[in-house]
Design goal:
By secondary structure, the protein is an all-alpha fold. The protein has 5 helices and no strands. The model has no long low-confidence stretch (mean pLDDT about 95). It holds the Pfam family DoxX_3.
Length: about 120
Amino acid sequence: MTDAWLARLTLGAIFIYHGLVPKLLCQDATELRLLDAHGLPHQLLVAAGVGEVLLGLLILLLRRRHWPLWTAMAALILLLVDVAIFAPGLLTQAFNPLSLNLAAVALCVIALRGRAAR
């Protein structure tokens, strides 16, 4: 297993997990508060969860394509900025969006720098 494939596998798992568990299965209170901060309906949580799961699957299935990784990196950075603006208190909690998103961006870079798994 190459480093690039390991990074891609981990990144895909992160997106699938974060789309499935806190958004689709549990509808986490923090996720709902983020929607409230934007004045958005809670029903969007399902769409966000489906989008994250799909992106995770694309990262895993389109192993020779880089655009899912670039999409993930852009989303991670934009969502981190969004949290910093609309819910900065989350950045001081344990296992917060800052540490998670920075680690996931690093995985994107590792996957992009390596060759696609054969």
